[in-house]
Specification:
The structure is a single chain. The protein is mainly alpha-helical. The protein has one domain. It is built from five helices and no strands. The N and C termini lie far apart (58 Å).
Length: 114
């Protein structure tokens, strides 16, 4: 009986670990994709791409939490917006703001419903 319980708990542990790895890789892939899109629109350097990739990965990991409150999502969006503004020149920021769909996606704002 102990062996069966041990085997089941071990299987459960591996399942949980695999699921966590999958979520992390999804966040990494999405962050890389978003940072490359940003690089194409505003023309940022390689080190800035890596910095934005880490920022967007943090955003995706935070937004993947199932019971996150609306206030926390709003605050995360505000922080990401401030970090983007601090990192880009005014000309680059104007290019990004002109592309509202990308801008909203990067800061994590939900499209407004009509």
């Amino acid at each position: 009986m102990k062996k069966i319980f041990f085997a089941l708990s071990l299987m459960l542990a591996f399942t949980i670990n695999a699921n966590a790895q999958e979520n992390k890789s999804n966040a990494q892939e999405n962050a890389k994709k978003e940072s490359l899109e940003l690089a194409q629109v505003v023309g940022i350097s390689g080190s800035q791409v890596v910095d934005f990739e880490r920022l967007f990965e943090m955003k995706h990991q935070t937004f993947e939490v199932k019971d996150i409150s609306l206030e926390r999502k709003t605050e995360m969006s505000r922080i990401i917006d401030l970090k983007i503004r601090a990192s880009l020149t005014p000309e680059q920021m104007a290019k990004l703001e002109a592309n509202t769909e990308l801008y909203n996606k990067l800061v994590g704002k939900q499209p407004e419903k009509k």
